[in-house]
Fold:
Amino acid sequence: MEADRAVWLDEFAVSCRVFKGRWSIRHCLRMYNDIKDLKIRMASRVHGKVTRYESAYNPCEKCKILAAHLKAQQANERLYKDDSEETPFDHAWAV
Structure:
């Protein structure tokens, strides 16, 4: 079982410099979406006024592998959406 895991990691895992290790692309997508949903609320005082803002920094956006995967997913969605002409149910197919 350990040998299978090592072979899988060598073939399919991606190296992540943010989370330090080799992960599957599914893990990368999950972490990307979790970080995207997480907003850290901060406040600062300048000249007697309080300024509130939210942090939306996502280090996974700079990952080239994840960016390529997301781009491929969007291309596949457009491809399937364009080819999805629905055939009528009353149309008979001969086999």
Observations:
- Strands lie at 14-16, 21-23, 40-46, 49-55.
